[in-house]
UniProtKB/TrEMBL annotation:
It comes from Pseudomonas indica. Residues 22-251 form the AB hydrolase-1 domain. Pfam families: Abhydrolase_6. SUPFAM superfamilies: alpha/beta-Hydrolases. This is Pimeloyl-ACP methyl ester carboxylesterase. InterPro entries: AB_hydrolase_1, AB_hydrolase_fold, AB_hydrolase_sf. PANTHER family: MONOACYLGLYCEROL LIPASE. It comes from the Bacteria.
């Protein structure tokens, strides 16, 4: 792992492979380690960067509240510091939200964007969403990240043959800094990349596991609002598609990164 000093502090990242640059952005409570199957595969044909977002992995911890837009600015600064603009950006969950915000704020910074099990907004207009958020905050306060880790791991990897993934994910979530996790979590509710995102012409591939938390109908609806996007569904996959279906996802990513226009045309 290498490190870089940015205005948001010290960030851990890796860079491997040669060719067109691709930047991978992980989700909440995760780190660049969860991209290993994609790093191994994509680095055969592309120059792959994976970044630990602020408050995660080996990067600077969070000690104050911040906005999702602040995390997107970290990513923009990293891209320009490494002189890889425009690059491909791939983000999962919160990393996908940061990618949407990045395009809304800097529409020319990416030559293509892939959002995996993610959304361009997180409005608190749903009672169910408010309850989920409140329950997660309460669980962390009462039982800590170790309990949250095991709860999420069982939901992410429900199959009998996924015991190793459950154990790995639970341990990684438990290893988070509690304060950093809470600040990052609180940056999501109420955030939206609309309406600026409607004017972005960057090719966007929206990837969803067929068992992801967010309904496919919702993703189909927001894809219709984007200027240049297509939805692809990965079968037998939950929210952690890079880990539970790496082979399927890697094939989808490789095709898009090789020729975004052809991939979006079907």
């Amino acid at each position: 792992m290498d490190f870089i000093e940015l205005s948001g502090g010290r960030f851990g990242y890796i860079c491997t492979g040669q060719g067109t640059p691709v930047l991978l952005l992980h989700g909440l409570g995760s780190s660049l380690l969860d991209w290993q199957p994609q790093i191994d595969h994509l680095s055969r044909s592309f120059r792959v960067y994976a970044l630990d977002l602020r408050g995660h992995g080996r990067s600077e911890p969070l000690r104050a509240r911040l906005r999702l837009a602040d995390l997107a600015e970290d990513v923009a600064e990293f891209i320009r510091a490494k002189e890889i603009e425009p690059c491909f950006v791939v983000g999962i969950s919160m990393g996908g939200m940061i990618g949407f915000q990045l395009l809304a704020s800097h529409p020319d910074i990416a030559r293509g964007f892939v959002a995996i099990n993610s959304t361009p907004s997180f409005p608190l207009d749903s009672f169910a969403l408010r309850c989920r958020l409140a329950l997660r905050l309460l669980l962390i306060r009462l039982l800590g990240l170790r309990a949250l880790g095991w709860l999420l791991a069982r939901k992410l990897f429900p199959h009998a043959g996924q015991a190793a993934l459950r154990a790995q994910t639970a341990a990684r979530i438990a290893g988070n800094d509690r304060t950093s996790y809470l600040h990052a979590l609180r940056a999501i509710p109420g955030w939206s990349a609309w309406p600026a995102l409607e004017n972005v012409a960057t090719p966007m591939l929206i990837v969803s596991g067929d068992r992801d938390y967010t309904p496919l109908a919702y993703k189909r609806d927001y894809v219709r609002k984007l200027r240049n996007a297509r939805l692809v569904v990965i079968e037998d996959s939950g929210h952690a598609t890079p880990l539970d279906q790496p082979t399927q996802l890697n094939a989808v990513l490789e095709r898009f990164l090789a020729d975004p226009d052809a991939a979006l045309a079907g």
